[in-house]
Amino acid sequence: MEALEIEHLCGQLYGGGVIGDQLRSVSQRLETFVSQANCLSQCRILLDRALTPYTQFFGATTLIKYFNRTSNQPAVSFTERFELRKYILEYLYKHNRSLAPFVLAELVKLYARLTKNSWFDLSPNTTNLNNEIYPFQTFTDDLLKFQIDPPHFSVALQLLIAILSEISIPNDEETSARAFSKHRKICISFRDTKLLDIYLFACQYLRDVIINQKKSLGLSTEFSDYPKTITSVQLQGDYYLVVEKLLSLGLACLTYDYLGTGSSIHDVDISDENQTLQVPLAWHDHIVDGSFYQLFFSYYFLFSNTLLVPVAISCLVQLSSVRRSLLNTNERLVVLNHMTHGIRLILEQAAGLLADEKSLHEFCRLIARLKSNTQLHELIRIDNYPLFIETLFRFTIDHLLSVHHHRQYHLSPNTLHYILSFWSKIVAFLSHSSKLSESTSSSDPSTSHLLDIYVPQIVCYYVQSRLDALNTDDVLYMELFDNDQTILQQQLEMISIMSRLDYKKTCALLCTCFDDLAQQYQQAVNSEAVERRFTFLIYVLGCVIGARGVTLTSLSIPTDDQDLFDGELVVRVLQLMTYIQQKTAGETQTNNKNGINIAITTTTDKIGSTPYSERLELAVLFFFEQFRRQYIGDHGRSNKIYQVLFKHLGIVDEEQLLSIFIKKLFTNLQYSTITDKLIERTVGCFSDLSQGYQSVRRLVKLDPIQYFINNHTQDLFPFLHHSSTTKRSNNSNISASSWSRLRTTFYAAVGRMLMHEFRYDEDDDDRVEAFMKPFANHSNRLLQIFKEFPDFTAFNVAQFATMGQFNPTMASLDEIQSLIIGIVRDLRGLCSAFVSKQAYASLFDWLYPSYLPLFLKALYVFYDRSDVYNPLLKFFHELTSNRQERLAFDSTKPSAYLLFRETSNLLYIFQTKTIVHVNATIPESDGVLFYKAKLKPIITCLRIIRACLIGNYVNFGVFHLYSDPCFDNCLQVFLSILTSIKQTHLLSYPKLTIAYFTLIETLSLVQSDFLANLRTPLFGYVLETISEGFLSPDQTVQNSCCIFLDTFLSYVFRSAKKSTAPASLMANVNEYGNLFRQILINLLNGIIFAECKNIYAVSKPLLGLILLNENQFFTEIKQQLLYGHTQTKQAVLSTALDKLMTGIDRTLTQVNKEHFTQNITQFRNDIQDSLRGMMINNNNDLSSFMSSIPLSSSFLSTASAIATNVPVTIAISTLIPSSSSAAPVEELMTL
Questions:
Q1: Is the same domain home to 956 and 1061?
Q2: With helix as H, strand as E and coil as C, how does 360-376 read?
Q3: Which of 7-21, 39-53, 676-690, 1164-1178 shows the lowest per-residue confidence on average (mean pLDDT)?
Q4: What CA–CA distances, in Å, run from 980 to 13, 102, 871, 872, 954?
Q5: What is residue 673's three-state secondary structure?
Q6: 812-818: long-range contacts (C-beta < 8 A, 24 or more apart)?
Q7: Which DSSP symbol is given to 24?
Q8: From the CB of residue 638, how many other CB atoms can be counted at a distance below 10 Å?
Q9: Number of domains in the chain
């Protein structure tokens, strides 16, 4: 394409003006540019001659895509990459003022990506490996020319930040195990050679900024002397940008991935409160140095109300999270004093926090992180602890918990979460009363923790302020009750822990609030506002009872007395539930005690009613769940609570209370109009009640349960209606299939009770038959419907394709679909609970031969509907799973073989119909549909095959003996699945990965000859996945790969020894010899340089691989392992490799493998000890070299000249040495 044409297309793509198909066409034309042979030179021409920033942006992004595609291939020479890197620096140097921000960001990203991808590339001119030169690691020298003025220096800082981010966090192209292994080695190398010096470089600049500002304000230049009042210094635009970049650079250093795990500080799967700064030992002196903490605190006092403050506080957040093992007790106290002193001074001058939401948020994070890394007995030893804790209490009450505040913004719930987290964790430490008493026994009373004074006040203020605000504050209501009450429950979980510190006072407050609201609720004409407050209060009561497990033995009242207070709360909730139930049934609330008792303990529910108040129903269910965890089940508590319940409501024991709970749950399931949250919470509570032997034993005695066992029909519970006639509320937000999925959970709970109620012998046959009657009725109806369908097994492909046009007369296809989904979900729930031999045999006898073939025909009919075949396959997976050896049939019955035959036929139908249909119609671009329609059923099929193979209830040789193709068909399904999915999919979806590798492991143990004699392409596919699996961070995947390879190699050597090796087997071994050698090198690399936790499992296949490549092991493979190392390291590795096979025979017997495991363990220890000693010597040399570098005089003179502005001239290479020192232990091995 011509340059002008590209200019025009870029303007259309990024500038707007085109939409729809035209925009898609433009995008597709530009995407082909990256595939051109001269892409590198063309992109440089575009950058040089671009008329618009859109063309520059396109040129930069195209280069990034180009190197993403070739980063793991030698497609671009070292010279081309190095020249491009120099070109980018020159381009940024010349055009940085005129570049659009988005263009600058892409060019900086490109520079960082080039630096990372070429980190361990040696210069082509290097001949002596003892003097290693890594040109791409000398990036600090390249930034010297950017010191001329602030705009250029800002670009240099942006480059440093981008390099840190790129090296610390794996990019989208580094998702495979091999690419991630390379990323980790680069990450560790950068940490050991560059990171600390960059951090000190940034802090040196930031320190001089503060000194210059203090001088201009006439303040003391000592960092320990904070200003008495906060000020907001306004810097010139360019200088302000430099300071902001310096702070960001310091933060990037502190948030670096020190362990190379691939997780960043912002990962959502890592709790922010549990983050730990895993800095190396070399950072110790700088972490203890108090001037670093004073430096960042100073930015709050001198640059208040600017964006510099949140970044500076973020740096303090990270410094407060340094791993505890780095400091001893005295050092930790010194650091803690620096932190708390700065925090207290900020609290005393909090105007800067109240004016900026981001600053307040980061400050609260700092407080929460302080407690996460510090124990209470350490905190009370700081200077002025009473003043610190009082100041923090006042700030919490006045500015954070206050709903009607004088802040200019609404307080984020995340910000409040951090401050509540501090108080709750510091209270929870009181359970470790021994440590606390030891730390305070010898000290004066002034060192008391004082929590019993402040924490109860925080609890009371929180509850009362929210109750008052919910009357009118819609924002607060939506914040607390949106998103499934997640924020509310998080806050109340912390408040409930704090409430146990003075439980008597807390319960008195809650009872008073409840009684007042109950009176208002009965008298209110418009109960909306009161209902909001009531809902909130019930959630508070539930969390308070749920925190009963917190034992604060040093201060709290005795456990038995707490039961009495809990009883008062339970009484009030039961009374409220009675009132709600009477309102639902249209009755009138009685005021006398006996009326309440009768209403609770008798059935007043009416089928088809509508819940009176959904929010109160949900709150009551939440309360019941919290109460159950503490007082019901296998770990039940004392019975003192029933003294209170009997006094007020006449409830004598746990069984009577359980009966009330069960009736309430069944009432919810009888509503004709029901919401998603209510039905999910109801079914969840019912399932939780059925967990545990003692709970089930009590439940089956209850009349409501007995009534349900005999009457579990859709007429009694509209929720179970197969046609979904139950009306869902207007705010329903889950699909019908997701709603019906709850049926499985529901019947699993029922099944657990049946396991205890029925003995499944002749005496119970009538009862079992009566229970299964609803299922039999629906199944018989399906049998009648399917009689209208022809015999699909006789159809060819063309005839079967026209089946969709066939319409039965007895029911529509949608109705049949709903019926099938309901039955298989219900039966799957029952089957999962039937873990005894008798119960499972009873279910199978009911299924076969009457109804099991029905489900195969259902798959024929609905082969193209994922809503049908997904639950159907999951039902068969449950049916074939040998839980607790339940599949032990009578020796005179062929039930196990019949089960496998039906399962094999089902899988064959799935292979010949569903997979063919999905491959032809479902595009990969539609990720959600592709997973649901193709990958999800494939995962289930792999699990079914493994369950059949590992169940140990079928002798598969019988099928070959009698020429039954069922077992062969089952294996062919596995091969069909392999040919229908890509390796990228296999390794990208965790569930699919686990299902595949565990099945490979099982097949290698059960049918090793089947995998070993696969056709060459299929065997290569499997072996390539095994090679990738060895690089996976998942131990399960690695162990499965080890078992497969060990079993395969043992089979090869055994067959070769007996001269019975098939030709296909030896052909596979010879064809993929290079891949076997690559696996061997990867395993040895992992043992030498990585944290090999499963060395015992890895050693088994490793011996076979060495023997398989014995001729090359001590020549070619050894040279590959040694290449790229210094001569000293080569000598260590060579000696260890020579000793590896000492005393090992050339066999794969179990005894020989055990001896080799001992050798490989000793090999790893020797290597680690030798390289660790070399690393210590290198670090000592580097430290002495750094200590000899004087501070730059040019920096000091420039700082004085600019006075209040930022100094920008300093020899960067002086503070950041180039990579002329030895590479770290975890260097990338060039193969």
A1: no
A2: HHHHHHHHHHHHHCCCH
A3: 1164-1178
A4: 36, 41, 21, 21, 28
A5: strand
A6: 813/861, 813/862, 815/723, 816/782, 816/785, 816/861, 817/862, 817/865, 817/867, 817/868, 818/722, 818/723, 818/724
A7: H
A8: 11
A9: 3
Name 673's bridge partners: 727
Secondary structure class of 1012 (helix, strand, coil): helix
Q: Give the gyration radius of the chain's Cα atoms.
A: 35
The pLDDT tens digits for 979-1011 are 999 888 998 899 999 999 999 999 999 988 898
- Whether 1006 and 1077 map to the same domain: the answer is yes
Cα separation, 683 vs 669, in Å, equals 8
3-state secondary structure 145-210: HHHCCHHHHHHHHHHHHHHHHHHHCCCCCCCCHHHHHHHHHHHHHHHHHHHHHHHHHHHHHHHHHH
- Residue among 206, 224, 200 at smallest CA distance from 291: 224
Q: State whether 607 and 627 are in the same domain.
A: yes
Residue 1223 DSSP class = P
- Cα–Cα distance, 874 to 880 (Å, whole number): 10
Q: Per the domain annotation, does 485 fall within a domain?
A: no
Q: At what angle do helices 1073-1089 and 1095-1108 cross, to 10 degrees?
A: 140
Per-residue pLDDT tens over the stretch 899-948: 999 999 999 999 999 999 999 999 888 889 999 999 999 999 999 999 99
Residue 1080 inside a domain? The answer is: yes
**Which residues, in sequence order, are bridge partners of residue 718?**
none
Listed residue (375, 390, 426) closest to 550, CA to CA? 426
Tracing tokens 């290479």 back to the chain, one arrives at: 1213
* Amino acid occupying residue 249: L
Specify whether 856 is located in the same domain as 961: yes
DSSP H/E element including 572: helix 559-584
Q: Within 10 A of 522 (CB to CB), how many other CB atoms are there?
A: 12
Determine contact, residues 1121/1229, Cβ cutoff 8 Å.
yes
Which of these, 1093, 976, 969, 1070, lies nearest to 1023 by C-alpha position?
A: 1070
Terminal-to-terminal C-alpha distance of the chain: 38
Q: 269 near 315, Cβ under 8 Å? A: no
Residues 1024 and 1088 in one domain: yes
- From CA 995, how far away is CA 992, in angstroms rounded? 5
- CA-nearest of 688, 689, 687, 665 to 678 is 665
Task: State whether residue 232 is helix, strand or coil.
Answer: strand
- What lies within 8 Å, CB to CB, of 1050 at 6+ separation is 1104, 1148
Judgement on whether residues 699 and 783 belong to the same structural domain of the protein: no
Q: How far is CA 1120 from CA 124, 1092, 1124, in A?
A: 18, 20, 9
758: its two tokens: 């029925």
| 652 inside domain | yes
Structural domain that includes position 645: 558-724
Q: Are residues 933 and 986 in the same domain?
A: no
791-843 confidence digits (pLDDT tens)? 655 555 455 545 555 577 788 888 899 899 999 999 999 999 999 898 999 99
For 411, half-sphere exposure in the C-beta direction (CA atoms, 13 angstrom radius) is 23
Residue 533 lies in a domain: no
Residue 1035 CB neighbour total at 10 angstroms? 11
- Length of the chain (residues): 1231
| H/E element, 682 | helix 676-689
Pair 958, 925 in one domain: yes
| Structural domain ending residue among the three candidates 1155, 1176, 1197 | 1176
- C-alpha dist (Å) from residue 389 to 386, 401, 608: 5, 16, 56
> Which stretches within 720-865 are classed as H helix?
736-740, 742-757, 765-786, 797-801, 813-833, 837-847, 852-861
Q: Which of 980, 1012, 1033 is the last residue of a domain?
A: 980
Phi, psi dihedral angles at 322 (to 5 degrees): -60, 140
